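Per reviewer request, we include the raw input and output of the structure prediction for the construct analysed in the revised manuscript.
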Amino acid sequence: MSPFERKFGKYAIRNLSFVLVMCYAVGYLLQMFDRSGLLISYLTLNPYAILHGQIWRLVTWILIPPSSGGLFFTLLMLYFYCSIGTSLERVWGTYRYNVYLFQGMLFTIAGSFLLMGYCYLFQPKIPLMNMVLTINTPDEYFTVIAMVFSTYYINMSIFLAYAATFPDAQVLLMFIIPIRVKWLGIIYAVMLLFQFLGTSVYGKFAIGASLLNFVVFFLTSRNMMHLNPKQIHRRQEFKREVRRSTGITKHKCAICGRTEVDSPQMQFRFCSKCDGNYEYCEEHLYTHTHIKRN
């Protein structure tokens, strides 16, 4: 467990995939009732509008779901991403899965602001769909550009991470053909590469920023890519048993004697009011009697 996880792990959101899918469901409902698209336009990731006070866009762009091909495929997509996200959370742990998703969202937000800077410097006009649109105001300019940023590539990063973590898992392609997830991951990766090379500079910013978190994940986890989830779990259990058998721990409560080996999710802190280096678990940190030297 890293120092950051020990400190911030308690704030991790459990079942984050389900929360994300519920956000998509709200977005689909908004699209159904907002035929004009006016309300949706106030939810997009528009960096120019954010800098002019519309800070809710930093969050509300997550409500805009990936495009779908009808109600059936929408429900199927929501179930699929909820399922693979839950599997990743169980293997990685809630904290790491939270970091992965929020990191991808932060990279996307940063990419939108970098794109705005690029546009101010190099793009006075917007090449879009083989046309050149001359727009009079910056607000209109970035309203059009904001359409390229969505949760689609966030979902792609979740799937790629799933394929890297569960390469031998099987899914039914077209509900009939069994295929290993790693081959689907390779196909999607090639498709994204061609899409990246063939799209405009705006699409390149959107794709690159959204998928950067998978690159970071791959570089930091490549030494465990050859292990399946059961092997990863056994390795973690083995390390925990070694620490328990050797009796070497980093933290130990002065009241109950529990250590980070006994309770991996427990937080430990030193008490500044006690005379001496006395450490307590989160249950006894505020309830113990302070030790004073006479």
